[in-house]
Amino acid sequence: MEQYVNENTVIKNELYESLKDNIICQICQCFMLEPIICLNCQNYFCKNCVESWKKKSNLCPLNCENPIYKNVIGKNNLISKLKFKCIKGCGEEILYDNIKEHYNSNCEKKIKILTSGEAEKLTNEGKHIEYMSSKYIN
Fold it and tell me: 120-125: long-range contacts (C-beta < 8 A, 24 or more apart)?
């Protein structure tokens, strides 16, 4: 899911702006997936990132000694309120909790057949359209 949940796909709004500094993993620098906290230094990480880190070091990723990790349900609740753009181009805005389901469904780009006049008008208005075997994709 990491490829679908990143800075480029999030719908930027007031909620995102108020949360962004509190929902980024200190290791991978992406939105936290299954957030955990190091109780010693109070920093947040993805569960998978910490599991990988623990194979390399006994220190916390930010170098505090004797780290104690705990799952953080509240962070997941914050992230679940964010919406993301579909990277497949269907135009959907998807809540975090529905991302896996959306991409596992038959999500496809919505194709609209345009006349050459409609395509020219959209191009003249500065809208990007892509030609694909006599069909245009908005």
Answer: none
